[in-house]
Every structure is written in structure tokens, then in C-alpha cells.
Amino acid sequence: xxxxxxxGSKAKQESEQLEVIVSLSHKxxxxxxxxxxxxxxxxxxxxxxxxxxxxxxxxxxxxxVYVHTTLIKKWxxxxxxxxxxxxxxxxxxxxxxxxNYSHNLDPKNEHGLIATMHDHEKYREVLQKAAKS
Length: 133
Prior knowledge:
Shape: globular
Largest sheet: 5 strands, mixed
Number of helices: 5
Strand order of the largest sheet: 2-1-3-7-5
Mean pLDDT: 89
Helix content: 25-40%
Order of helices and strands: HEHEHEEHEEEH
Structural class: alpha/beta
Number of strands: 7
Oligomer: single chain
């Protein structure tokens, strides 16, 4: 099996339920942001541990979007980011900036993150607005 064989995700129609995976420790806060961002669309929030696990759920197509709105350490997200990008997905912070993993930079990503296989910029824009309001 290859990484591409894992990829079961496809873009969803606006009428379909959106599957969003978030950290267990921030589920309530991120759930509020996601539901506000994607209203009136039906949104299902899944809380889970492990940034890599959450990213793989997006890769597999089990989840549409992985959202984190607070500080996260870069070492927790770099492997998932590499896998996601290897098969055509995207992970950025909520501002839309790629996350720089250079060893001489701050190990903290303080601007949240969004990981997707499809419609990244569309999801990112509405999440960023909802997180600010």
C-alpha cells in the first residue's frame, strides 16, 4: 500500500454534513467556532487525541477538516503535515501561512491550524473569521 491508497477523501457538496475533527482538550471552544463558521450547514464535531491521528483521519476521508484554534507545538504537527502534503492535502495556520518547521525558529505555532484535502482556502477563510469574532 502507498500513501495515495490511504486517501479516501473527496470534496463534499454544501448539502452534505461536514465532518470536523478537533482536539479533545479544546473541543467545546473549537466546536463553537466551527458551527458558527459553517452555519447553516450541518457540522459533526469529533474530539480526538494526537495531532497525527487527526491529520490521518482527514487523509483517509473520515473527517473533512482538522481544526486547532490555539497554540500547538510544531513537533506535534510536522509529521502529519508531511504526510498530508505528500498526497496533495494542505495544512496552514488559520491566517493561511505555511508552518515553518526550521530548527532555529520558535517551536510554537501560535496561530492555530487547519488541515484539509479539499477546499482548504474556503474552509480557512470562514474559520479565521469565526475565530476572530
